[in-house]
Amino acid sequence: MTAHKITSEVFAEKDDAETQKEGNSAVSKFFFKYPPHMRKNRTAGKEALEYDEDGDLILDRIEEGAILIEHSVATELKLVGLQIWRGALLLGDYILSHPEVFQNKTVLELGSGVGFDSIIAGTLAKEVVCTDVNLGGILRLIEKNFQRNKALVKSKVCVTELDFLSENWNATLSGKVKNVDVIMAADVIYDDKITDGFVKTLAKLLDTAGARQAYVALEKRYVFTIADLDSVAPMYEEFLRCLRRHKVNWSIEEIKLDFPQYFRYQRLSQLTLMRIEKKI
């Protein structure tokens, strides 16, 4: 029996001119407007203002950049990390909108997938630690995507395995976590078992790492159920149940989505970004 495959709406919404496709693999450009701190860096060091022949000031019109990402077009559920989903784009906007949170910090991403948000964080951070379960060659793919965007990335980069369903961490990760300042994750709430493992992993990190805050982005996917006679978001509800089940001592704030949108995507009302902090 052929396994059911799904395709991210992000890929379906992209202009064909922005993507080169070969079989089930694709390389896509994700364009973004430069935020103020990146525009400032681009103009730093210019010796003098330039004028055209009419005496008008020549402005730097290059105000847009692009992140180049190799990803899959369609995958089974267990390999959805090989695609990009809307939550990653929302988190990317937040990183670019709040450079002070990530500037010169050590950032740990859980479930890095193709490395999209880690690359964005790498434009600001001191070091980025990318983690995921090593299925479908995903860790190697993260490394390749960082290489594609090396002109943008300023930070050190460490790519290592972390399986939410395993309580054991490898030596590389164990050596890194104590120096982590910020934890982030996007689109990791899609399966009950994975969600439970994610909550346990995040709880362990907030207990042992230097970080006391995490940013988690997701899309609430609503379905109508006969049992509820209503539209519900089952994966999000399971996430909330996991929090209650494990009795985590966290404060959770839903961040208002009124920060600038730099990437091209549909910022739906179902998108959610949470700031999670361990209570002292």
From TrEMBL:
It comes from the Eukaryota. Pfam families: Methyltransf_16. GO terms for cellular component: nucleus. GO terms for molecular function: protein methyltransferase activity. Signal peptide: none annotated. InterPro entries: Methyltransf_16, METTL22, SAM-dependent_MTases_sf. PANTHER family: METHYLTRANSFERASE-LIKE PROTEIN 22, METHYLTRANSFERASE-RELATED. This is Methyltransferase-like protein 22. It comes from Nasonia vitripennis.
